[in-house]
Amino acid sequence: MSGWTEDLMNELEESRCSDAVTKACQFTEQVPHVRDLGIQVISVDRGQVRLRITPQSWMFAQEDTKEICTSILYSLADSAGGLAVIARVRELMPIATLDLRMDYLRPANGGLSLLAVATCRHLTDQIAFIDCDIFCEADSELLATAKATFMRNTHGQQFHSDGLKKNSV
């Protein structure tokens, strides 16, 4: 491949990746519980996403222990899994969580940000299979793992992407 062709291919891939990040950010801004939790998109790459959540005091199971409620980790894994499906197919589409199984390995300390890394392991016409790990961002300590399945092309809320074109998510 000649130099200019390779440069063009790299440019096109960077454009697709930045487009995927833009769509993921739009998802996090327009889905109410994702927005309310303050979930941030760190990266999106061919079926894998990284999301961050910075805990707030209202997320603690008990204020004196500063452990984050497991439901916060569950929501983070579910959001990361859904975005991993979108990252894999490279388009916004309606999806629904069919099953999400979590294993909690240790409590999440409320003073540290959490990082979720979700990967779409297999994709069929109707189902996506996801693995997700949740870490303490400061020390990369594994806190929880999740396995999920998502149904593709379901009915969902209207999603507005750039250019005011309506899509469902």
UniProtKB/TrEMBL annotation:
<dbReference type="InterPro" id="IPR003736">
    <property type="entry name" value="PAAI_dom"/>
</dbReference>
<protein>
    <submittedName>
        <fullName>Uncharacterized protein (TIGR00369 family)</fullName>
    </submittedName>
</protein>
<keyword id="KW-0378">Hydrolase</keyword>
<dbReference type="InterPro" id="IPR029069">
    <property type="entry name" value="HotDog_dom_sf"/>
</dbReference>
<dbReference type="Pfam" id="PF03061">
    <property type="entry name" value="4HBT"/>
</dbReference>
<dbReference type="GO" id="GO:0016289">
    <property type="term" value="F:acyl-CoA hydrolase activity"/>
</dbReference>
<feature type="domain" description="Thioesterase">
    <location>
        <begin position="73"/>
        <end position="140"/>
    </location>
</feature>
<dbReference type="InterPro" id="IPR006683">
    <property type="entry name" value="Thioestr_dom"/>
</dbReference>
